[in-house]
Amino acid sequence: MKKLLIFMCFSLFFVVGCGSETPDDGNEKQCESNSDCPLPYECNLETNLCVDPKTGEEMGDTGNTGDTGDTGNTGNTGNTGDTANDPNKDHPCYDKSGDADNDGYNNSMECPTFPCRDTDADGTADCEDKDSDDDGVADKVENDNGSNPYNSDSDSDGLTDFQETQYGTDPMKKDTDGDGYDDLAEIAYGTDPNSSADFIPEDVFYVILPYKPQLELTETLNFQTDIQQADIAILVDLSGSMGDEHNNLKQDINNVIITGVKEQIPNTGFGLVKYGTLQDMVYFIQQNITLDITEIQTAVSSIDDCSGSDEYHTLAIWRTANGFPYNATVDNYNIGIVGSTCSGETYGGMCFRPGSLPIFIMASDEKFTDTDYSSGDGPVIHKAEAIEAMNNINAKFIGIDSGSSMNDFNAISEGTGSKDSAGNYFNYTISSNGTGMSDQIVQAVLNLVQHVQIDVSTRKEHVDGDCAGHQSIDFIKTITPIEAIPPESVESINATTFVKVLPGTQVVFDVVFENSFCQPEKNQTPIFKARIDVYGNETTILDSRDVLIIVPSGITEK
After folding, report:
1. N- or C-end of the chain: fewer Cβ atoms within 10 A?
2. From residue 553, how far is each of 43, 159, 198 by CA, in Å?
3. What CA–CA distance (Å, rounded) separates 234 from 274?
4. Which of left, alpha, beta for 523 (phi over 0: left; psi -120 to 50: alpha)?
5. CB-CB contact of 260 with 224 (8 Å)
6. What is the pLDDT of residues 56-87, one digit of tens each?
């Protein structure tokens, strides 16, 4: 208005005095504090105008539309207050002092200028719309409770104002009870958003992921690398020279071996393979992997000496790993072994459990003789085939030598990577009378699970929830290794894997999320559950985290 007055003064060549250039504060000033402005506007204390904090738009002159002639009788200035030709004069909201929709907000607030604002783009102007933001809560109710009638999620916590009324939470506070967890997360998890005594456990990981294609959210997750689950296949040489070792094993399998190993790894299964000679009991699985102590004790108690002198060590290793049938004539001895039959997801010759580290413990006092054998029909299984079969299931090897097996044991260990960071194998020598055999087995297992180097990577698994033809894991774009703690406990890091990690090392991954497909209906908050598993050598489960993915219908501005 100041510009208009100045213009008029100059156009009259000062014939008429313009008076003061300071505008009438009563006409220009809109506010002195935020409480003087309707939502979403706030008071600019420098200009005393109501301004939208997001757009910078001024609310506008809310009533002084025609009073341009109070300049000291300037003559006919165009009669700017004449509404006869105003195309908006018949609009229900033309009277700025009125309230067309009776919601408690004057037309001047909901339609400061023409065309009138339409917050929810439903074709009805805010000044005529009893629910301007289409959140299910009438503007009049929002006026009473202090929420924003022009924002369906007044506190930007992901819960619409309507949902807040359903749960009794404060629509102007992201965290109603002040316990550090947003109302949306508490409702999704099942805790009470109105009670600070009821909150989400610290180990629960969740993300709030609104529908925003191409907008990525990166979170950092830490995992442990201790071996949590193992399946131990005990392969026992049945030759008569092993009688003392057999007695030691029968006596201590339960009280020493099983008890000692389970103290370190409670989730350990055991199985027993008996391998004899070409002449007698060449190979027999007495007990597949089991968690039943009685079953393994019964199996060990059945060990008896066999006749003959040509142990087929490499066949025993190969067949235990893969469970394949084997038919051959070796040194004129006919061998026929049927294939293993495992149930569910168990696999290999002894039905190893998914998620377990397969550990082969071979006890013998004789060197391997596979290179001495000739075959008339079918192949002879050599060390190379035995090692390949173990590597196919990522199994590790422990040798217990009471005679002359050590060189062959070391070859198997080298081929399967069964060694620590210093290159030491997990093979041990005991007395020829079997003394200390069971204690050595326990110590060997503990040494292996604490010091064997493993490659660490992840898998994502769907648990619950689907949307628009997608599963929960589709929200997870990438899982990238970034750091090992301590860093010297890992040899290297590539795009997917920590290479040669010492068990017990903490590994850190960046997890990138994106929601490009799931747009929930109004006032709906679908929840999805995925799981990130961390594996050693792609076989043994090391750690696991559930991930809750919460998709809000609210705004969730950060």
Report:
1. C
2. 30, 7, 24
3. 8
4. left
5. no
6. 777 754 344 444 444 444 444 444 455 668 89
